[in-house]
## 1
Amino acid sequence: MMELVARRFRTLGEPLRLRILQQLEAGEKTVGELVDALDAGQPNISKHLGILYDAGLVGRRREGNAMIYGINDPMVFRLCDLVCRSETKRSKAAFEALNGRTKVKR
Amino acid sequence: MMELVARRFRTLGEPLRLRILQQLEAGEKTVGELVDALDAGQPNISKHLGILYDAGLVGRRREGNAMIYGINDPMVFRLCDLVCRSETKRSKAAFEALNGRTKVKR
DNA sequence: CGACTACATCACTATATGGTGATATAGTTT
DNA sequence: AAACTATATCACCATATAGTGATGTAGTCG
């Protein structure tokens, strides 16, 4: 059970995959468009898209000889929101702790 | 930026770390108690606790010569809730799709 | 102080995974 | 069908990381 949840988190634990999802949040895109937008190798993008697809996070359909990918589970953005908020709070706390402990010239 | 978020997800992308957090949800625990509860090696538990600590997810304090760990950022449980709900929905959809496509004897 | 306990860290191995060039496959066009 | 385009897959290397035995370190007790 924990294994399943962990796998899900690991799927999101890769910057390039998050950037792919971010691109798709704006709307469906072909593999080629993602390759251009993200400045990454095509096999690499395809591999990551495959992982996201297997995880059920994105959907795809064929159109001509292009594959069009799109978001399938909007949950990911709520997850990212939570993490970002937490990260921000953490950074702020770290900053204030530093200010509190450091002798500041006045 | 995405790198930070990804790192956070990767921290949660490990079953043993999730199980540690799950244990700590019930209340603070020492390293030894976690080792017993999770049936894992002590160095391994300590390493994972260190990772969770560096990530700011757990806090710790010394008491005698025992180290007591506890949850520091309850966000993780909201994250897990979201993932679990999504996972459940996905499993259910997969099941129904299977039932819809398979010829069933009646 | 020495012995003991609880934990952290080190050193190492095994495995998983990301990136990439080469190649296979599906669809289109002529 | 041959040539072309878009994507997927393969084979491989490099790196990251989980697990583990040995060792270091902080605190307690006699």
Note: Residues 14, 16, 40-41, 43-44, 47-48, 62, 64-66 of chain B lie near DNA strand D (CB under 10 Å from a C1').
## 2
Amino acid sequence: MADKDFFDRVYRIVAQIPYGRVTTYGAIAEALGVRRSARMVGWALNQTIEREDLPDLPCHRVVNREGLLTGKAYFGGNVMEERLRQEGVTFLKDDQVDMERHFWHPEVEDDFSS
DNA sequence: ACCTTGACAGAAT
DNA sequence: AATTCTGCCAAGG
């Protein structure tokens, strides 16, 4: 297991979210082996705002299990929604994506410690 | 060192 | 079925 910081793992997963797809906090947490730490995922993403030294993270593709853009407030305005729409993501209603169509299940991280 | 908060999720009422 | 409550774990006050 890569004993990387919890944040780094989150970042790596988020960075793997395909264009036009979205995933959930819980799914990411689960992929990291800590299904019950979904809140930490959100916290980790929050840190990305301060940390500019991080790679381009499509954190706008991360929503909660209901498909709600719970973190849109941190993007300023409707940037999050607009970006998703621009990627072809369909919205059931404002601030709610159609995760039935665009949900992407993150892959479990492989520890490259071979 | 203790208590509160948080971009969630699932169980309980 | 809808709303409330609790669990989780890290960071900030």
Note: The longest helix of chain A spans residues 38-50.
